[in-house]
Amino acid sequence: MKKILYVGLLALTATGCFKNSTLNIDPNRSTTVDPSLLFSGASTQFSLLRVGELTWPVALMSQMWASGGRWGLEQAKYDQTRVRSAWGRTYTDVLKNLNVAIKVAESTQPVNKNALAQCKIMKAFAFSQTSLLWGDIPFSQAATGDVDLPAFDKQADVLNGCIALLDEAIGQIDPASKGIIAPNDLYYGGDMTKWRKFANSLKLRILFSMVDADPTKGSAIGQLLASGNMIAATTDTMQFQYYNQPGRQNPRYSFTAIFRGGVQSDWYCSKPVYDLLVSLNDPRIPYFYQPGPAAGANEYVALNSIENYTTRSALVNMNLLKPDLPEVSFSYSEQLLLEAEAIARGFATGGFDLATQRMRAGVRESLLSFGVPTAQATTYVNQLPALTAANYRTVLAQQQYLDLFMRPVEGWTQHRRSGVIGQEVPAMTTPAGAPVAGLVRRLLYRSEEVNSNPNTPSGLAVDAPLWFDK
Amino acid sequence: MKKTLLAFLLLYGWMVQAQSRIVSGKVTSPENEGLPGVNVLLKGATTGTVTNADGTYQISVPTNAKTLVYSFIGYKTIDVALEGRSTVDVKLVADLTNLDEVVVTANAIVREKKELGYAVSTVGGTELVKARDPNVLNSLAGRVAGVRISQQSGSVGGSTKVMIRGANSLSSSSEPLFVVDGVPISNSSYNGSETDIVTGGVDVGNRAGDLNPDDIESMNVLKGAAASALYGSRARNGVIVITTKRGKVGAKKMNIAVNSSYRTDNVLRFPDIQNQYAQGNLGVYNPRLGNGWGPAISSITGPVLDYTGATVQGLTAHPDNWKNFFVTGHTVINSVSIDGASDQGDYRIGFTNLKQTGTVPGSELGRNTFAINAGRKITDKLTSRAWLNYVRTTSDGRPQQGSNTTNILSTILAGVNTTIDINDLKNNLFAPSTQTVPAGWTGDLARAIDLDGIQNNPYFVTAFNKFSNSVDRLYGGTSLSYDVAPWFNVTGRAGTDFFTENRRSTTRRGTRGRLNGQFETNEIYERELQTDLIGTVTRRISDDWTFKGIVGHQFNQRTIRRSRVLSDGLNIDQLYTFANAQSNVASNFYSRREIFGVYGDFSFDYRNFLFLNVTGRNDWSSTLPVSNNSYFYPSVSASFILTEAFPNMGIVKRDILSYAKLRANYANVGSDEDPYQLAFTYNPLSQASDIYTFNILYPIGGASAFGATNVLPPTNLRPQQQTSYEFGTELNFFGGRLGLDLTYYRNLNYDQIISIAVPQSTGYSARRLNVGEISNTGIEAMLTVTPLKTRSGFRWDAAFNFNRNRNRVESLADGLTEFVTTSGDGFGIFVVARPGETFNIQGVGWLRDPQGNIVINPTTGLRTPGPRRLLGNIYPDWTLGINNSFSFKGIDFNFLIDMRKGGVINSQTVGIVRSGGQAAETAVNNRTPFIDPGVIRNADGTYRPNDVPVASVQQYWSQLDNSVSPETNTFDGSYTKLREVRIAYNLPRTLVNRTPFGSIALGLEGRNLWIIHSNVPHIDPEANVLGTGLIGEGLERGSIPSSRSIGANLRFTF
């Protein structure tokens, strides 16, 4: 009897080994993917971090904007606890997915070289941005999953690596064939000519961030300018479009919409920036700011970084926080101003006349982008002083800084590279109550990385300059 | 062995047909009252009956029958020789030793307790209905050795955590498996991820709370792996085996029982709030704030603005704001059951209705339970049974807990300064025009408790921002049992448990912080299916040896389906439809897993005093790699009854040592893992996010998106393992006046499957692998003593239930010094496992000198935050329950004291009321700055005692907030509580006989009555926001205060 039972049980069990079972195949997720779907996810996440989480703390601690104490004053005093997910998400949601997309694209025949190029350009963008915020970062061993404890590469190596990555990408671009196209290319809709322009311009930005620490980059800048093929019109602007639809709005608008019912009452006019504008008699003041609710019609009351707001305090203009404004990654005005700097510093030919011409063109583009009427913009740029060996550093740095008013990530880098430590343009002072004596010069590594990666550099003060910051 | 078999048969409702002659009689208690429900069996046969409500019985026996056996739980089983009589009256003697108690163990296998080589605890159903708690698990608190029960919050229908012999896993909660009538049921909670919970979740309860105490015959707690080897993997955390009630033979064809309870709940403990100081900053009045850092209220006499912007003449304190906000909760439970039995079968139908309102205004819970259980004898050899429970639970207005949303009540209340009248808020839900109203806003807007309009009126939250849910649940099964031969039985059983839960939480338009409103809809479907085929062989091998063998096959399948829609931005106020929302983000999830198991259980009985049991099981799991999905695990246990082996020993004979049993076991349990963890996958993304949660939804610009997994999948995954051993003894002295049940155990969990964090710079957040060892070593002791017992019937029993468990993380992955099991990311609190330690709370501690003194900043006189460190063990060193019961002539008086020693609790509520200047201690000594004890670092690196007073009392207390350092808000979690007081009165039969009732019992009960001792200020030290689904406890964040309950209960039968 028992034997019969055993046999019966074994017969029942034989069906239970899941040998050819599909039961453990995940119905919620896929095991294959098209690289363009990874690309659109990485781009969107990257843009969101730039326009959201990295905007507010960076703008406040670098004194580009003032908090007025609306959310406390700690961020102005270099508290970085609100930069909580940018490090991790850049590696896990942006760089990792770009790497996986490259791997998938490389193993699909025929290999889509344009797609590879687009992914590599975004990688160079994300790595260089991360390094300019944090300094030495995992690069050569990062975001692949192959190395458990990625080494931290020196900033110079990271930035040189990014340039090499861009060169590799430029070499793979074939404007005659298709790469990742609309809708998944949320920047250029698959226009590979524009991607090549952005790649070259990004190279220019990276070279400029390096040139103070590594003067040999001057000649590289000269060569780059000579070969051209960079952003050359507003239509070439590298930007991520947002829409006035729920869930697709620029998060800078959502913040005000959700917390304040659409009334901007969080971001205030910062004194060093306002003073600079006043000193230049700059027409951008009413475009950058709006008067406080209890202030007069054209009364702009600025706050220093740790002053509490009043109902008269001027605010960042709501027109710059509209739901459908794009997140700008590289603008034509930035390009023109960098070209002016290259010429003024003698990296490229043309002399101060050409430099002045480029500067005026760049400032004009900048003013127009903020909504200043053409005539007013033209008048303003024409009264700007011609660049000379004596004034070019200050005049250019002022204009480059103001141009980046709504782009704190680039604006902070611009400020740090605008002069030797203590001589930055515009001049700023350490906020009272800050934990260190100097201006903030770096983001600190997040505890998640510190706790899990023994290679993370330690003992860094928040005012210790990065390698590029000379 | 026969007896076991008989009991087994009886429990399955087998009534063997009448033979030839009738024996009748009455069974009475020592107090001469008729005892209903006593088993009357013919010795050596399968014939039996049960006494009626008045204790009378009739049994048909063969003419040559010699002996009847009378047994009843709580009384000694006796054999009575018939000697030809046709009337046999029997008086049973109370049995304190429960020698012949039968226990329902794995797979509904009934065994005699003395056979068992492992510790098992039983709680009878009658214990559960005397004081009825809506969540039956709470009734186990303090009563069962080795089991720790903790109620997670004061929310209606809140969850109750059960932990048996310590935490076994680094990656999942150590909740036991619940089994009803041989079929596992779900105890899931879906209370959300740690982020959801920490940032503002609702305690939606755990599904074991659906169990209806009135339908439960008994609850057995199987604690070790040996006890539960046959259940497989899920039994490694212990098993709670529940047997539901069945129809019994009564005086009438139909027995009717009614049980009605009424109970009130009130908040056990409110924070101690100061009533001297108004809102403001550094003593300057400011109605823009809701804190307590303004000037003395008495100093403000002239006209000032109040929190609404209205001008008032001076301010007044309202000391009862908290008390006035919370209300008295009411619970009404009514149940009725009908049952009956004959020799052909039995049936029972039960219905219970529960209605409860909570201490938070507008919170309510309702539950209707229908239970049917029926057995039928088809032929002499074939019997069948079917049972079904339908439970419908609905709730509304469950409060949010945690720390980061607009709806957390206790955070809001901590911001209501005493100068604000809570009744004013109650009567005025909406904002007056004098309060900050966003320009262009039309429609209703919540009145704020501050002029700046940041915090919502708590009454607005309870009126409109509601969490509601409904659960429709069905569980039950059917079985067929066939006697192939007198010594061979085959039983087949199939059972299922499935439920659908619908949830909705709303945030009304006009809620400050979420002006445009939102709502979330959740649908959860869960189903478990299990079939068993069991063959049982019972053979007497020789005069001395009996063998019983069980072999079985099991199939288990679990399915989960969820969908969730987050709808944001409402066009029309209070219209919670998808089409009315400006955006809807939907997500869904499906999973299914299966296990095939084959098992065997072989026991040998030597002369009824030595028992040996060997089990083995092999599982095939769908969730493991095909190459490694089969795993075998064995157990062996032994029991030795010393007193029966040596009945002639002096102390045994003189009844000094009435009973002595030694037991030992060793077991191993393998287990699988969650489904779908093996492949490298790509997830379709619904949104991109950053910390501000202004998420970008896909598709954007027409583009959808995918992301590769953030968890590196495992390679060569093996089953997880637990090995355990246990030694124990049960001793009874002086006929049961003194008893001791002592157990020592140790278990080791290894090859755990967990996701170990990897640096994010790898591109991944974690890697999944077999790693990590945790052990639990402990002692359970249950001492029972009857100090007093008089001839008049007075009796005093005391029981001491002591548990001590040492949980230790033995090892983690190579090179890994710490593993974060639960993270309160961004709030500075983590539950971490470190090798050589148990689970600890970790957070930023105060900077200390080498002697451990707190280092004070010489300019401010304030403490300095230092590095992150361990702030204390989350689990207690030991717990002790002391139960005293007194009985006299039908009156039972019972009180239970519950003690916990050790372990820490971090309370954010304490931090908030202190840093906000609302706590009573912030108002002492007219807020004169004082010197905080500590040291100041000298220039040469030495330290001197602090001589710098704090810059201000406000700065001192503000700094003690969790956001600076959780250290000061972390307290020793030891407590002593008066857990339960119960008075039960059974009306004497003489009185009842004159009524239409069969029996009448009255009860009064009080639960959670008094915190006798606690080291935690302001809150009940038992609170825990993590609930049952997450690892760890000891974190309190905006919890709803727990309740003190007082109630009455009336039970009667017809």
Automatic annotation (TrEMBL), chain A:
UniProtKB keywords: Lipoprotein, Signal
Domain of life: Bacteria
Name this polypeptide is given: SusD/RagB family nutrient-binding outer membrane lipoprotein
InterPro entries attached to this UniProt entry: SusD-like_2 (IPR041662), TPR-like_helical_dom_sf (IPR011990)
Keyword Hydrolase part of the UniProt annotation: no
PROSITE patterns the record matches: PROKAR_LIPOPROTEIN
Signal sequence extent: 1-19
UniProtKB/TrEMBL annotation, chain B:
Top-rank lineage group of the source organism: Bacteria
Alphabetic keyword roster: Cell outer membrane, Membrane, Signal, Transmembrane, Transmembrane beta strand, Transport
GO cellular component, one term: cell outer membrane
Provenance organism: Spirosoma validum
Lineage of source species: Bacteria, Pseudomonadati, Bacteroidota, Cytophagia, Cytophagales
Signal peptide: 1-18
Membrane protein topology class: Multi-pass membrane protein
UniProt key word Cell membrane: no
Compartment(s): Cell outer membrane
Name used for this protein in its record: SusC/RagA family TonB-linked outer membrane protein
